[in-house]
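Page 37, top half.
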Amino acid sequence: MDGAHRLAQIPPGVQCFVGDEARRRRRIEGVVVSVFEGWDYEEIIPPLFDYADVFTGDALSSKTYSFVGRDGSVLALRPDFTSLLAKIAAGRLRERPAPIRLYYSGEVVRYEPPKAGRQSELFQMGLEHLGGDPRAADAEVLTIAAECLERLGVRGFVLTLGHVGVFTGLLAGSGIDEARLEQLRERVEVKDEAGIRRALAAVDIPPEARRALERLATLAGGPEVLDDAAETLACCPAAAEAVGELRTVSTALVRAGLGAHVAVDLGEVRGLDYYTGLVFRVFAPGLGFEVGGGGRYDTLLGRFGRPLPAVGFMLGLDRVALLLARQNEERDPAPATAEMVTGRNLGEALAEARAKRAAGARVRFGNGEER
C-alpha cells in the first residue's frame, strides 16, 4: 500500500460514522442515558488515559494500548470504565457517602486480534452502583438494564445470570494451576461434560465437588434451575451461598414483572477477573453474541484504598445498533428537509437564517448566493 492510499484509509479496528449512522447512534445513546438519569445516576466523564497499572489483570493488561509519557511514566488508553471509576470513587469522591451511583457513555480502546466483527475502538454506555446493600443493588442494576432494552424496543431480550462464587467455591483449595483453570473455564462455558472431566483429571478436589463441576454444563434455563442447583451444590457451602444470592435477585426480578426476561446459567464463568459475585450477560434474537453485561466486583475498590461492595453493567452501543438494525426493518425517520437561505446581501441572508432557526427550522445557508 503506497503512502497516499494508506493515508486515505482508517486503521483496522477503528470506526467512522456519518449522517444516518451517527444520528442512529446518538438516538440510542440518548435513550439509554435518559434511563440512567431516571434512576438518579450521576454522569461522570473520566480521563481518556491513566497510569497503566490502574488497568491490571490478565483480561485487560494484554489488550491495553500503553505508552510512555513525557515524564517517563507508563500510561494507557482506557480499555474499560470500571477500573477508572473505582479509582475516582476511592480518590476524588472519597468523602462522598455510599452508595454512589455513576453512569458513563464514551469510548474505550483495547487491542483485539484482526478478526471479522472485532473492533479495537468501542463505545460503551454503562453505570456503577458503589456501596449499599448488595442484593438490592444487584436487582436495581439488572432492572435498569432491562428498562434500557425495553425503551430501545429490543424484542425478546434475556438477562442471563450466573455467579462467580459457584465455580470458585467448588475449586477452593484445589491448587489448580492457571493453565488448567483456563482450560476448565472454557470446557464449562461450551457445556462440554467430557472435556470438563478431562480438565479435572489431575485436580485434587472431593468427588462430590467434581460431580458438581461436571453438572455446571447442564445447570442452565429459567429461574427454576436454581432448585436443581441448590441440591447439586449442597456439598459446597460457598457454592450453595452463591445460589442463594442468585435466588434472592431472580425472585425479586420475577416479582417486578421481568420473569420472561430472566434466565440462569451457572456455567457462565468467563469475564474480567475482578468479578466476585453475580455476573450477567444480555442476549437477544438476531445477534449471535451478547450486547452487554456486567457483574459484582467487591474487591476492586479496595485496591485503591476504599473497600466498597460494587456492581455495574454496560451496553455496547455498536452491538445495540446492529441488533436494532436486524430486529427492525423500518429505518429511522429522516431529518426534516433543510430550507435554503440565500441572498445578495450577506447580512440580510444571515438575519433570515437566524430567524428561521429561532422558529425551529432546519436551514442550509447558501453563502449569499441568489435564490
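Page 37, bottom half:
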Amino acid sequence: MAKKADAKPTPVPRSKPSSLVDTRVIYCGDNLDQLKKLPDACVDLIYIDPPFNSNRNYEIFWPETSEKRRFDDRHESTKAYIDYMRPRCDELRRVLKKTGSFYYHCDWHASHHVRVMLDEIFGENNFQSEIIWHRTLAKGLGFTGFPNNHDTIFLYGGGGELTFNRPYDPYDLDNLDEKTASKYSHRDPDGRLYQLDNLMNPNPNRPNLTYEFLGHTKVWRWTKERMQEAYENGIVVQPSPGAVPRMKRYLDEQEGRPIDTVWMDIPPINSQAKERLGYPTQKPLALLERIIKASSNENDVVLDAFCGCGTAILAAQNLKRQWIGIDISPTSCSVMAKRLRDNTTLREDEDLWKAGRGFVVQNLPFTVDLLRKMPPFEFENWAVKQLNGRANKVQIGDKGIDGRIYPVGVSPREMGAGELALEESWYPIQVKQKDKAGRPDMDAFETAMRRAARTKGFFVSFDYSEEAEREVTRFWKEEQRTIILLTVKELLDGNFAHKLV
C-alpha cells in the first residue's frame, strides 16, 4: 500500500502523570471551591455538562444503587444560571493550559447566553467551533413546531496552538454511499477500489522537483527516484497512452470522511443500552471518547467539573489520560467510583493511588453538621450505604422502607425492571433526617414492617425521643418484632456492628 504523504507523526506519550496537580481523583463538593485550589494552567482538556436552565424536574432510577433520586436543574432565571456559571468558567479558564481545549455542553434553553458569557471569559478569538450533537429522533404527533432534538457543544481554546487529532468517520467498504462510490470508481484486479489523484506540486517554484517523467515535464509532488519507484509498484499510472501520470489513491487506505461540526452518528443512551445508569442527562461514552481523542493525547490531564455519573472520567481512563472529576453530589461520586471499579482495572485504594495505580474519592461528608445539611435523598443513600445495605428503588411511594439489609450469604434476586424478590431474607431500613425521631415515625415504620412481613428492622436518625424508644420496646413485647435504633454518630464512628447481629 502507498504511504500517506500527509500523515502526521504519532505523539509520544509522557512517561508519568502531571507534576502540577494530583490526578485520578474524584472530589466531592462545590466545584468552585475545588477549582480555586488548582494551580494555573494545569489542565489539557476540560469538558463540562452542567445542569441546563431547562425548568425540568427529573425523577429517575439508578440501577447501580437501586435508588430513585430527584434531579431539579431549574434556575430561577437565565440570569441566575449565568451568574452561577460565570465564576466557575472564570476558574476553568485559569486552570486551562494555553494549548488546551474547553468544551461546554448545553442545550437550546440558554445556549445563546452561554456563548456570550464564554466569549467574554475566553475571548472571541479563542472560539473554535459550535458542535451540534443530534441526540434524538423527531418527536411524534402532537408536538407543536420544530422539535428541539440537538445539544450544542461550544469549543474554545486556551490561546495557544491547540492539540487536535482530527476524527474521521470510517468508510463502510461493503456499503458505500453513492458519492463515495462515484469518487472511487476504479478497481484493481484484486478488487481494491481507488481514484486517480493529481501528482502536481502546488508550489511551482520547486527546481529540485521539476523534471521530465513519461514524456511530461512538470513540478511534481515527489522526487524522481520516488516517482520511479511508485511507477514500478503500480501506484503511478498513465490513464491512457501519453496522458499525464496520476497516482492511485486507494479507498481502504483512507482514514474516512473527516468529522465536521454536525454529529449525527452517535445515538443517545436508550433504555436498552448496556452503559445506561438511569442518570437523566447521561451522555454516551462514544461522545466523550470522540472529544477526548480529538483534543488530547495519552497522559494529558482531563477535567470534568460537573461529573454526574462519570462518563468523561471513564472515557479518559480508558484512553490512558490522567483525569480529575468534581461533583457536588455524594451519591454521584459514589456511583462514579463504582463505575470505575466495575469497568476498568483501576482500584479505589489510597496506597495504590499514591503509587500511580489507583484512584481516590475525597471530601465525602464525614461530620454530623455536614450530614444535617445534605439533601434528603443524599442523606438516605449515605445512611443505607453505611449499613452495607441496598437503597430502595423508589422514594415516592416507597411504603415506608428506604433500604434493605441482606444477611451474609444472601443476594437479592433481580426481577423484571430491576425489582427485587420480596420473599427473600432481608431487613428493612428507615431513615429520617431529624434531630429526634418520634413516636409517629415508629408507628409508620411498624406498619411498613407488618406489611412486608418483617420481624426485624433498622431505623436511622440523629437521635430519638423517649416516646419513640418506649414504642420500640412495646412493639417487641406485644408483637415480637425488633426495631434497632441507630444514630448518625454511631454510623460515623463505626460503632454499630454489634447492633446488626
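Margin note: Residues 78-95 form the longest helix (18 residues).
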